[in-house]
Specification:
This protein is an all-alpha fold. The protein is built from ten helices and no strands.
């Protein structure tokens, strides 16, 4: 049982459901959130497919804008499987259909806000020739992990334990640079309490991560299988 589900951001399938049933203003807000969540994997796919940064930005802009106009996300159905698969399949279809008539949007007209594009671009090199689908999946995995970490920090914040979170959070990535004894002294708690804190943080993060993934898979799919796949492709970096 995941603790504190109320702290989860409304993401993935819950946002798609909002698109279908919510009033216009709420549906538009949900659509904006979906676009904000998923442009990075799409951009990663386009870049690793050999497109320039400008071309990649244009095709992602075009796809998301068309998603607004043609209600692409409204066609998504959790009963049919993973959100990851749905989105990549739709994007591939868009690239195929637009290949002969590539649409370049004028700056500022019908433009989706692709935040941190410059930061996103720093990872790319002109000779990067890895599998585009792998790049897409890797960025997807990073989004899942980032979201779970954000929710974890919010949870500790609500409990008035941000100092504990910020001191121990390195345990999630093996980046703790201090011994448990030093952390005990730093936090002013017992060594046993530090060990319990690390164990509890890892457990909570695992639950949050699994819950995030549950929001992207179909009802008949195993979230643990998706979790193992996504963690595996991050471990291969």
């Amino acid at each position: 049982m995941v603790e504190g589900n109320s702290v989860f951001q409304p993401t993935r399938w819950t946002l798609v459901q909002k698109l279908k049933v919510a009033p216009c203003a709420e549906a538009q807000e949900a659509l904006n959130e979906l676009c904000g969540l998923y442009w990075r994997p799409l951009y990663a796919y386009a870049r690793s497919y050999g497109r320039s940064s400008q071309d990649s930005e244009d095709v992602v802009q075009g796809f998301l804008t068309k998603g607004v106009e043609k209600a692409i996300f409204k066609a998504a159905d959790q009963e049919k499987g993973k959100m990851r698969t749905f989105l990549l399949t739709s994007f591939k279809r868009y690239l195929r259909d637009e290949h002969a008539k590539l649409m370049t949007l004028k700056r500022g007209e019908g433009k989706i806000d692709l935040v941190d594009l410059q930061a996103e671009e720093t990872q790319w090199k002109d000779n990067d020739a890895q599998d585009p689908t792998l790049h897409f999946d890797r960025r997807w995995a990073l989004i899942i992990v980032e979201s779970a970490r954000t929710q974890l920090r919010k949870k500790y914040g609500k409990e008035g334990k941000l100092a504990l979170h910020d001191t121990l959070v390195g345990c999630l990535t093996g980046e703790l640079t201090s011994s448990y004894a030093d952390l005990s002294e730093q936090l002013g708690i017992s060594l046993a309490a530090v060990k319990v804190g690390v164990h509890r943080m890892r457990k909570r993060f695992g639950e949050l991560l699994r819950a995030e993934i549950q929001e992207t898979v179909g009802p008949d799919e195993d979230p643990d299988h998706e979790l193992r796949y996504l963690i595996g492709i991050l471990a291969d970096v």
